[in-house]
Fold:
Amino acid sequence: MSRMSRRRSLGALTTTVLAAIATSVALAPPAAAAPAYDEYVALGDSWTADVVIVGIGGSATPQYVPLDCAQSSANYPKQVAKKLGVPKFFDASCGSATSEHFESPQPGLPLGGTNPPQFSHLTKNTDLVTVGIGGNDIGLAGAVTPCINLLPSITLVPGVALPAPLGGSCRPKPGAVDPIDEAIKTQESAITERIEAIKPLVADDARIVMVNYIAGVPPRGCWPYVQINNEDVPWIYEKFIALNDMVARIADKAGVELVDAYTDTLGHDVCQGLFTRYVEAVLPVSLNAPAIAIPFHPNSAGAKAQAQSVLAHLNGSEPAGVE
Structure:
């Protein structure tokens, strides 16, 4: 073979090899992106646990906490962890929890269970923490329960009405001390201190994100669709807004991030249609992602909306769908 022929053969071989390499590179699947976070811990109360008892969107599970925490198998922390592909995840949220239960056990659950201190699951490897807390600290659930009235407000004699759940009113009388306003004054600093106490327990670069409460209460009532006197609903609405204002101040004072799930869920309150609302009312049956749900808590659709808000915040984008 002549020298010229050898050069041509070598050139053809090189071209063939390079073409094969290029083809294999083009056909190879892209390398999977590394998870953005190594360890995610969720802290919170029943609006984080999303206390759905049973339903197609998720049922109560003892996977992470006692069954009587009523923590849904598809609450927003679990959806967020799945979407992010976090290697290590723990959901410490529990129904009826207060910020005190971040540092102390939560005994006396409905079935006799005790949830360990929620902080006990934080480690120096934890680089993502979500927090939903405050409603039980200020006693909002207890204040709203007497508002339930199955009958219209009927005055028997001046100053005397049927007791709840048959009548009456739950809002403070004119000139009386508002218990929610007083509780916010006394509890805000304590909650702030507990949020600040997360920082030394987790990774130095951890993202700590407070999540406020979704828009479950309208400014006006819709009795008998929701069995709360129309005169009481504006007061409940005001207290709900005050709760979220407190959460925002706490996040600012503690130097942590805030997810505004409230704004993202406007138009999905308890007075909306059965297939629209994200929070259930008095009757414990949800048709928006069918389930048996705890009254006045997010349903399965609400949990999905919460997850969308958190993921959008973490990704710096508008709320997007959760598969």
